[in-house]
């Protein structure tokens, strides 16, 4: 599974202005709602429920909020590059400026974990994250996320 399978070009936010984690999750929920056709409130509530278990800020300025919803038909992602890093209660205490939201069907099981692992592995690549941080437009971010050869490895 590659990131190309998870994200569409209309699911990229190139310069998200969000002063807080909650606001960032609300904005991402709105975009995911537009992509998936599911109410943003349902998505936002699922993300908050997951965050209560522990922060999805994985370190290195990266967060991977995720959730399973009954009305999600296929795994899908939304990516945002924040204009300014925000406190995300990340595991390393560092502010977050790259967020990859992942939604999965309630029945996804192990596929959800595989997709999370793929996103995490991709975003651990320092050369990719440096290029994502330097790219200002959505089409460039989409290309970086979906065309990078490292993302196609199994």
List key phrases describing it.
single chain; 154 residues; alpha/beta; Mannitol-specific EII, Chain A; six-stranded mixed β-sheet; 5 helices; 6 strands; 41% helix; 26% strand; globular; disordered C terminus
Report what the structure shows:
The protein has five helices and six strands. It is globular, with a radius of gyration of 14 Å. Strands 1, 2, 3, 4, 5 and 6 form a six-stranded mixed sheet that branches. The chain has one domain (3-144): Mannitol-specific EII, Chain A (3-Layer(aba) Sandwich), CATH 3.40.930. The N and C termini lie close together (7 Å). The protein is of the alpha/beta class and 154 residues long.
CATH first level: which class?
A: Alpha Beta
Strand percentage lies at: 25-35%
CATH homologous superfamily placement: Mannitol-specific EII, Chain A
Return the CATH architecture: 3-Layer(aba) Sandwich
CATH topology: Mannitol-specific EII, Chain A
N-to-C terminal Cα separation, in Å?
7 Å
Percentage of helical residues? 40-55%
Give the low-confidence spans: 150-154
The biggest beta sheet is recorded as:
6 strands, mixed
Helix-strand sequence: EHHEEEEEHHH
Radius of gyration: 14 Å
Would you tell me the structural class of the helices and strands? alpha/beta
């Amino acid at each position: 599974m590659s990131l190309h399978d998870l994200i569409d070009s209309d699911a990229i936010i190139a310069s998200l202005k969000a002063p807080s984690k909650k606001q960032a999750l609300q904005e991402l929920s709105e975009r995911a709602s537009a992509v998936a056709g599911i109410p943003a409130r349902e998505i936002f509530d699922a993300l908050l429920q997951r965050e209560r278990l522990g922060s999805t800020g994985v370190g290195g300025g990266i967060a991977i909020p995720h959730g399973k919803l009954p009305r999600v038909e296929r795994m899908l992602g939304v990516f945002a590059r924040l204009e300014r890093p925000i406190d995300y209660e990340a595991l390393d205490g560092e502010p977050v400026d790259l967020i990859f939201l992942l939604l999965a069907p309630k029945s996804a099981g192990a596929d959800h974990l595989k997709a999370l692992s793929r996103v995490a592995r991709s975003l651990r690549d320092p050369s990719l994250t440096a290029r994502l941080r330097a790219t200002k437009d959505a089409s460039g971010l989409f290309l970086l996320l979906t065309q990078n050869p490292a993302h196609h490895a199994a």
